[in-house]
């Protein structure tokens, strides 16, 4: 280590201050040494090494050694993380060292320069001092000289020189120092000190007293390092050769191109540029876009093919050429044919198909007008995506679909800038290129599944795409030029609208698709699903048949959904059973009836439990809206001895908990009117439970059902088993309107109910309910909660079984 000569005076002053500190040097036994433990360093004899000491005991040891002009013993710690090592935490073999220099820095740290002298072994630690002292045995260096040691010495010297020559920027003085070391032991210590070894490996070499064994260990470790250095050197040389070869190829290509130009021969690049120029002319780009394309083509012409930007520029020009800039000639829309296509592809959905026909009629009369963006909203499996395909067929246009589920990067819509490696246009431009037409029908699927991330909000990028006033100059980040999207017919789909941002929802006309009725599902299965599953399972028509009774049973007992996706799966499962029998040759035709379903599909998954649930007081059937359609839910109430608490279970949301509290308060305020002793509430707890506790439930529309369940519990009158109810209640006893009437009515019909009680202010929604559902249900319109009690509860009281006092009338 090189020490700055300017610091000599400061070092001398520091050492003098230690000697003149007024303390008397400690008397040490003749065979004792002051010890300085080190965390990571192993000092070898003959090596000069700088050491920084900061622990109080080490600082005291160094200062005592300076005052008494003692040598010190340098020992390595077994665990470098220990702040205050004890005797058992130190190795027993170390190095006797002279302190050559002692410096106290301005920041209070203490620095030593120590020179190793010889090995020692700790015999006994001595206490009673503020630093570590031990009786030691000094180990003399063996001077054995044998032919084997001499040979190992020369081999180690050669390996050390080779290792130094493989390392970059090694000073020649170090090579000379290795060559000038005279003794075998000194050479082993010298090489081990400067090798990149683990602390444990260095300590093992220090503890090896035998010279021959020491040289052998160091030689073995050095040979491993030489192999690593050789490999690194070879890899570096290969990389250099590869770079030189690439530069040589670039130079030769330039020379070859110059020779071809001198000889007047056309090169491949010239033909490529001419071909691209002709393609740009045929693409019928707008004037500003064509100027940009030809500008990039001129850059490509001047650019060497080996340049990094050559491929990026060529890809950009290809994108501009392949996009459908020209508007194709449109065929007039045939409204009668459009009706036929919609009826052929979809059963039912009369209002939806009527709205689509209106949309197509407006497009026919005003081809260049600003048509609305249709957004189909409904549960999974009701045919939203296939409606978009039918619109494309009716308009005789190309159809393309862009899935937005899980998109959380704005660049997925607008594209990446060309400055990024691997940049591409956004999904909108990619879909138009795939469709090959600027007037395609583009379905943006699952628009409610968009998510914002650190890369931006993709829903904000869609605002320009779906705005007819702006999308005629849509600018993709990759293209960098405007592209007209006004001729594209955009259709979007969503399961729910709650997660769609307001500005984006405002740009779309929402068309709601509710669930199918049982008869509609039967017709869809007979017309579409069975035929499709026959083809998917390799069956010809006539080889397998499913009766209408079997389809009815699958719909009622094996599926409970708004759409028909699970229905198609169950039909496919039944036909696969038939395919096995036909493939085995056991039969040529299979007929599947309702009685066969238990064997094929297993026991029924669903059953009508309304009558069973409402056969006792305190149970009411409610109606709920879910993102996958309507459903029924049960509200159960019981009374137990207590002090007037309300217990709610079933994973209810905050709004539903408030509805339950409002219902109980309303029952308490009307206790006398319904024949209940008000004092009963002070000595009873009321427990309200909504089964299917693993499913979160929320919303105010269960208020009527909760109120009816409480009145049923307290009066002993059961709720009618054929009746379901929905509606929000107020503390004044009013029944307030709720949403999802269409879906809830369909759910009541699917569950086999006969009557539905709904708020009177929802009477306007009756037209949205399909005629089949209206024919199956009797609608009871509620103004106040008293109407629900008189219409929904049985007249006679039911005495609860023994031991179930919670349901006894008050």
Question: Would you mind describing this structure in some detail?
Answer:
- The structure is a single chain.
- The protein is an alpha/beta fold.
- A five-stranded mixed beta barrel has the order 1-3-4-5-6. A five-stranded parallel sheet has the order 8-9-12-7-13, sandwiched between helices.
- Helix 3 runs antiparallel to helix 4, helix 5 packs across helix 7 and helix 24 crosses helix 27.
- Residues 1-11 and 801-810 have low confidence and may be disordered.
| Distance between the ends | 98 Å
Major sheet summary line: 5 strands, mixed, barrel
* Percentage of residues assigned to helices: 40-55%
Strand order, largest beta sheet: 1-3-4-5-6
The total strand number stands at 26
The share of residues in extended strands comes to 15-25%
Question: How would the blueprint of this fold be written?
Answer:
Blueprint lengths: L7 H12 L12 E7 L9 E6 L2 H13 L3 E5 L16 E12 L5 E17 L5 E8 L7 H20 L5 H9 L3 H11 L4 H8 L4 H53 L4 H15 L4 H16 L5 H15 L12 H11 L4 H16 L7 E5 L6 H12 L3 E5 L7 H4 L12 H9 L5 E5 L12 H8 L8 E2 L6 E2 L5 E6 L7 H5 L1 E5 L5 H19 L7 E3 L1 H11 L6 H20 L5 E3 L4 H5 L8 H4 L5 E8 L2 E13 L4 E4 L4 H16 L14 E6 L13 H13 L1 E3 L3 E3 L2 E2 L5 E2 L4 H10 L4 E5 L11 H6 L1 E5 L2 H8 E5 L13
Parallel strand pairs: 1-3, 7-12, 7-13, 8-9, 9-12, 14-15, 18-19, 21-24, 24-25
Antiparallel strand pairs: 1-6, 2-5, 3-4, 4-5, 5-6, 10-11, 16-17, 17-19, 20-26, 22-23
Helix pairs in contact: 3-4, 3-5, 3-7, 5-7, 8-9, 8-10, 9-10, 11-12, 11-13, 18-19, 18-20, 23-24, 24-27
